[in-house]
């Protein structure tokens, strides 16, 4: 049988942040397995993240273009995880500097891509594709509710009556279930928007270009996001919206999984042996993703909460980056690791998250509700304790609460929860009889079905490949 996408050349362009890149690399693997010819664009410092993808798919070609110089981004920084969070919009705008080099590359290529699949933070690639007369498909690493809100806010530009009131309610009556929430739940990309400011306008135009793009591929699945997916199709006025998630590494590929998104700072075997010694579903995993660094006050309360809770845990601690105030961020309290020896494992730096979550010993996760982590937790069938910090995380936590698969325990990057309270909720999270455990197991089963033969995500992937295979480069 002929491989469906054989001969069709596609450019994949991930946004350089682990929370955006990892899932798109998993999708790229699926596209390559379906016979598409892939070129993937990165800047030099992100090349190493492609290692597992390239070793599994030697046919994929890389296009490495220099990171465009930007005075606010230190030399050598090319990934959002190495940049303070507030400079995110600057990085988004800086990458727009790749427009001309990329256009030249297309024009000099003997058999150029017929489509660009690029992250939603690279909306300008829609205009590039239009200039070339080819198609652009936006890749969303966010869930349906978040994306629907994102599209609505950038189109409608809602404003607050009182510009200082973070709690003022903003509502989206046209989105299913008419979500209403405090202003601070909106992404800082939007709340920091200043009309006329070049970076702000770049970000807005990017978002409008996403809406205008030919297609949308999402790391989500129909059974989880049905209503919002239909809403997005209605709003965009076409059916080229493909939900192909949860995008995950293959079960059997332990080395690829251990290397996913970065090199683990502790040997995967050591972590797995540690987990092997624990009972099923009794270990709590703690993470705040690839970007968020906790303050020392937060670390102290969390460490003390873990100590008091008596639970077994793996705590993934992201260390501060240059530019984050010395002494203010992310120190594990002195003596903590000795006091919890045998009961708790602290991983500083990159943790092999999916490998950990998939272990039978893990029963709950305390997390920031980054969308990838939410999906990974669903696939692993672990209960989620939500502490949304920034960006789409508030809306993801809201969606989880609506699904009854997660419990919000804290909220906001500034919040310092009380250790006794944390101890209690953490201890309760591994109770087998919780309603959230049953609900997350149902979602886990739905995700498994969506990604098995004839499942909704597999069908959407096939539809995406079939649409791509029909495209031709206009200059041929
Ligand atoms: N991740 C990981 N190890 C780490 C930190 C993060 O493997 O030490 C992965 C995690 O599994 C997820 C991604 O990085 O796939 C983080 O994405 P998410 O959307 O959860 O949060 P973000 O990092 O964007 O805040």
List keywords for this structure.
Rossmann fold, seven-stranded parallel sheet, six-stranded parallel sheet, 19 helices, binds uridine-5'-diphosphate, UDP_glucos_trans, transferase
Task: Provide the CATH superfamily of the largest domain.
Answer: Glycogen Phosphorylase B
Judging by the overall fold, what is the CATH architecture of the largest domain? Answer: 3-Layer(aba) Sandwich
CATH class of the largest domain: Alpha Beta
Counting helices, strands and paired strands, the structural category is alpha/beta
Bound compounds: uridine-5'-diphosphate
Helix percent band: 40-55%
Number of domains: 2
Tell the overall outline: globular
Strand content: 5-15%
Oligomer: single chain
Q: Runs with pLDDT <50, length 5+?
A: none
The mean pLDDT is: 92
Family: Belongs to the UDP-glycosyltransferase family.
Keywords: Glycosyltransferase, Transferase
Pfam families: UDPGT
InterPro entries: UDP_glucos_trans
